[in-house]
Structure formats: C-alpha cells, structure tokens
Queue: 3 jobs
Job 1
Amino acid sequence: MRYHLALAVPTVAPPSMRVKDQIHTWREGESILFDDSWNHEVYNRSPEPRVVLMVDVLRPMAWPFHAVNWLVTRVLARFSEEAQQIRANLNRYA
C-alpha cells in the first residue's frame, strides 16, 4: 500500500493521478492511500513542481504471508537502487 500526502500542488492545471479506473486530482494538504500493485500514473501538466510525501505501508496479511512480505520489504529497502539513492540524498542534505 502507498500513502501520498500533497505538500505543494500547482494551482494552475493541478496534477492528477489515475489508480485503476479512478482519477484523483491533487489538492494541497489532501492525501490518498492506494494499492500500488494496481496500474497507476500521475499527470502533471503544470510548469510548477508537485511535492508529495510518499509512505509505503505494509498491507495486513495472515501468517506466513505477513512474514514473507516483511522480509521482502526489508531486503528491498536495504538493497534496491531506489533505497540507495534515497540514503545518498539523505546523507547529502543531513
């Protein structure tokens, strides 16, 4: 599951996000929680940037699926290229 909180949203042509067949138009201070395994994409036709806080949330699962999900999440968080880039950015600006 993924949680998005809109921190800065362009006022002209605000961005929108499609999750499956539903469209969400961003508004500053509003949020959305969605299953990121579904097909999704964001459209930002504004010349201004969109700033969103993204938080991954482990989905509730029965044992032993929860253990497998937890393990895979930890491994990806440690070794994925995206996680390494996030750590590098944090170190650069900390």
Note: The chain has a mean pLDDT of 87.
Job 2
Amino acid sequence: MRTTTLSKLCCPFDKKDLDLQIVSQDTDNNILEGLLTCTECNRYYPIVKGIPMMNPDEYREEKFELPLMATWKQVNGKRTDNFRLASSGESKFAP
C-alpha cells in the first residue's frame, strides 16, 4: 500500500480518519505490513502484504488475526490486547 492511499481511506463504520502504524516497508517505501486505527471508534484494520483488511467485524476472525498481531508485538514491542476495539481513548498499538 502506498502512503498516499491513506488520504483516500476512512473507517467504514463511522467515516472518520485512520491513524497509521507501519510495521514493515519495501525499498520503495510502500507499506507491506501495518495497522490502521480509527480515530473515533478505535477499530483496527491490519495491512497484510500491502493490502488493508477492512472487513466488517462480523467477517473477521480472531484466530487468524491474533498470530499476526503477536508477531508485530515481538517486532515493535507494542501492545495488541483487544481483538476488535481498543478500550476507550486508548490506541490499539499503544506502547
């Protein structure tokens, strides 16, 4: 995903802006892995192999996302507690 794509994306639930946490990039600075977090509802959307996974909650499966989040935690030393929503006022990727 190109960083310029972020300006075209919003949270599919409340149409608010998304914060970006980059986990890995390629040599052209395209985002390979990362996390988009809604500034309003705190839902998170992982970026996997350059593709933002912005599925509705009912189509997401915790068993597939948690191993990825655990890997990122090891890489970045960041917390990835709650599956779909971060606790109020708290970023999903808070240190």
Note: The CA atoms of residues 65 and 83 lie 8 Å apart.
Job 3
Amino acid sequence: MASEQLPAGWTLEGIRDVSGDRQATTLDTERIVTGWPAQDERIHPEIVLGFHGLCLVKPVNDDDWYMGSLNDDGSVTCWSVYGDLYEALRGL
C-alpha cells in the first residue's frame, strides 16, 4: 500500500518555507532507497519528501533524515544524514 505523509508537527507549507522550495511535496514510500552508509544498504522509508531532484527520507524506526537524489526509476540514492528535519531542510 502506497503511503505519503508529513512528519509529525510539520505542514507542507512549513516545509516549503524552511527549504525555500515552493514545490516541495510528499512522495510515495513504496520505492527503493539505498546509499547510507554503504551503496548497497537498503533504507525502509516511513516518510519521503521531494524537492525537485532531491529527496529527504525518514526511515522506519529511525529519527535521522537522509538526503539523496531521486533517480529516473523512482528510487533514491542517499549520500548524507542529518539529525533532524529542520537541519536537513536547511541543507538542501
């Protein structure tokens, strides 16, 4: 079952304000997410936020946020991790 949700305490408008991306959106979590800490490491997303070609992913049972690229096939390859969403949004 596909899932698109916002982080607790956040609105889409708030995410757009902090990130500076007026087209930021939630994305379906039914996708392959890899890349942290190793390229073949699989991340199971609870929340995926899209910012043009970039994504922020919050894994299930993890409070960190992973930044990565949205690939043409819909998968995400992460290369960085942040301790909280605000920090990750400012890092875009």
Note: The first strand starts at residue 25 and ends at 27.
